Amino acid sequence: MPEREAVQRAEALLREDYKSCFQGPSGDRVLADLARLGRMGETTFVPGDPGYSAFREGMRAVVLHIFDAVGLLDLGKWADQFKEES
What we know:
- By secondary structure, this protein is mainly alpha-helical.
- The chain contains 4 helices and no strands.
- Helix 2 runs antiparallel to helix 3 and helix 2 crosses helix 4.
């Protein structure tokens, strides 16, 4: 039990670290850029190129992980923001 609690505390601390890194106006700009790079709001599929499709999906998975860790996994918000900035 103590090991499990230590893991949970470490995970909670890491989530707070993510939130700290991505707060404020500069954090919003970085998150918007990550949403663009991760192709949030659009497909990662590349017709005829399964390798590149997998690569783009991997990038997207990293971005989704960050958004989840920050507590902002609202895909619609970030997709809309990216479209406005393009």
